[in-house]
## 1
Amino acid sequence: MLGRVNHVAIAVPDLAAATAAYRDTLGGSVSAPQALPEHGVTVVFVELPNTKIELLQPLGADSPIAAFLDKNPSGGMHHICYEVGDILAARDQLMQAGARVLGNGQPKIGAHGKPVLFLHPKDFFGTLIELEQV
Ligand code: CO
């Protein structure tokens, strides 16, 4: 089921400061900010030779990362995104195995214009998992 690591996501309290740190201090190539109101976040991507880093800042009043940042005020690793070939087949297989899919179980369109789903962190050793169909 699992393909490549598409990205590792880090929640940050200040996206401009995080962009500057990744671009100027670490010398990374950072995309322009992209608002994703349906996901309650604004994101940038740092392009690396083998994968991407997604920097997430809350967007709107009920952002799903607000509580995470309350617990981790300076930011922290938020999720890891694996690529899958068929997200509905992956979802059905995972649910049959007892894994919990967040939300209503229907994929949403993610930052790359592709369907994504999130899996409950308690089912995967404390790590929130995003699946992206590629
Ligand atoms: Co992500």
## 2
Amino acid sequence: MVDDSGLRALREAARLSPDNLPLRRHLAGLLLDKGYLAEAESEYRAALLLAPRDPGITAGLAEAFARQGAYGAALSALEPFLAEPGYPPRMGVIAARALLGEGDVAQAGFRYHEAVMRAPQAADPELAARLAAPAAAAAAAPAAAAAAAAPRAPQPVEGPAEPYEATDDRRSGVTFADVAGMEGVKEALRVKLLLPVRQPELFAAFGKRAGGGVLLYGPPGGGKTHLARAAAGELGASFVSVGLSDVLDMYVGQSERNLHNIFDAARRSRPCLLFFDEVDALAARRSDMRQAHNRQIVNQFLAELDGVDDRANEGVLVLAATNAPWYIDVAFRRPGRFDHLVFVPPPDLAARAAILRILCRDKPLAEMDFDAVAKATADYVGADLKGLVERAVEDKLRESIAAGRPVPLTTRDLLALTTSQRPSSVREWLATARNYVMHANDSGAWDELLPWVNRTW
Ligand code: ADP
């Protein structure tokens, strides 16, 4: 029972206007802050009915769950968000608390560091201390969970870690022919990455040296990873895709060692294209970081990009992708590092039709009006179109099994799904980008975005 007159008054106000979302949100937040966890939970549940996918409310509910020891419920609430890159860092910290509660120390450490790298203000010293003392944390977790988690918890590493093995995707066969549209982006990659390797004499004649990296940025699902893979295929280079979990580690010093091993592995399998996804978490502004450990990771990354000498990274091309380029430390943009920023825009009408053609290439089609589907998918990015085609194919497969013969895909099948499948967040992304273009573009770094953010939808 809440013993606070201010809270009781707010609660009464919420009872009288149950659809007032800001009021409910405020009340739920206060209840959580004051530790009335069960009450906070029910307020957040009520608010969620008014705004079903609201990240702030979901995070609040998950926190209320986690603080009551309902770790599974907290993780289930967060799951849809955590599956997307660039999820709110606060959610990462709450997930870390819940994972630790369940005894999954390794995952908890990963989530925590990933979140705090992006948003230092989300740091939770108490949680960080528990993560740094895994034995104590595991002992504090319920016995069964701790026992189950024990074999998965990483051991502190004394010497160098296991060398990183490069996955050689040379035979994946993806090239620029598999990337629809994006002519400007492909051209930029050709000039920066491919030509110096193919025609080194020409570049040498102009006093230019192959090297340095490219930072691809744009809305999630826009095809950055696909482009990077295709660039490696174009070049006949091995493709090493590095995710955050390959680098970040809860033990001090280990993340730096992981980075070093990754670059070393790439240097051993030249020509090699090293691709860092979600690089904002590894290359965030050091001025934003409170923890020296995180600054160390950034410094190590810079040192690896520079190499010990001029030739250290010869034949190693570095591509990185981010949905949030504005969080990246400017030191990464210096010559020889990610000195080339390339915007991967959302696909326009012609590009969407071309992407659909590629996605439907090997599918049984009755007829397909790609232009009509492209028109009906205005806010879709490549990943959304891929999801649309995959869902339609699954439906057809079921129909074919029932009919006992292959039933081909039609325009209507795809059009019908566009009404139920919501595209991902291109508009939200452009709204965020607009803030940076308008208010933090002194260096002109975001000029390329200008025509996009001023577009009226
Ligand atoms: P990002 O890395 O920007 O989040 P992805 O590269 O993972 O996006 O894109 C998701 C999927 O969308 C890819 O696997 C690919 O199948 C499809 N896709 C995106 N853009 C294109 C494109 N221009 N041409 C063909 N397929 C594309």
